[in-house]
Specification:
116 residues; alpha+beta; 6 strands; 34% helix; globular
Length: 116
Amino acid sequence: MATELPEPFARADQRLRPLIMDRGFRPIAVEYPDRARGNATSEYAYGPLRLRLVWEGEARALWVESARQVGAEVVSRWSDVEWALAGERQPLNEDLTDARIERLAAATLTFLDRQR
């Protein structure tokens, strides 16, 4: 029996996927939660960069992370793109509204623009 994606994660993935793919990224994995409140991720790769949308089920929070890759291997730690833009760690954002997803999309695009 397949587990369905958590609704906030599905909405965020639906919004972010075309934006990320328009910048040359390809989807490489979607991990479904192993229980109702589990984690889920949607991962993308392009050149030396990976992005992944993360749903943390226990905290009920969404964020986007980036990491460097060589070939198919991740060679750096995953880091939150919003924290990277802010220059410091930020409080966990538990907002699951469409406005939050739009802020995630904007932060992801700004982060990608800065990687060029």
